[in-house]
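re the bet — no i am not wrong, look at it urself. input seq straight from the record:
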Amino acid sequence: MGGRGGSSGLSNEKPVSKLIAKVYFNSSKKSDALRGSGTVKKDSKLEKVINSENTSYFKSIKTKSEAVKTMNYINDRLSESKRKIAKLGSAEALFKNQRLAIEHRKLVNASTAMRDEMRKFSKASEKGDISALHDTSRTTTTYDRARKRRMKNFDSWFFGSGKK
């Protein structure tokens, strides 16, 4: 099991199926990650968490800044993995390269687990508060005009209009 390099670490890993390899390749091929370049400086603590698939570490994160840093690291590693997969050129090549496929699967699982944990750091809006839905800085003029017309129509119906 020990030793330098080699595939000793993968001997007990469940291999990635041809179908999943095809899914990973197709999603990588269409990813925005291809626009980026370079590699990510590895964080040994997070790499151990990702490789062991120990998601309890994510639950132990207490601060939002640490959570954001962890999420960004995982996203950067996922993007790097997608670039490597896209460079292989085919789903068949990815299926043959089980090391990369298994690493990608672990990164996807870590990303999903961390995304779920990020919810605890986001502030939930109060019940019945819809102001976030009508943030005028994020709406188009077409939407604003249509909403204004609907509100005017509702007001005239609710409060009664001068027209009969």
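see?? The two ends are 87 Å apart (CA to CA). told u. also DSSP finds seven helices and no strands in the chain. so pay up
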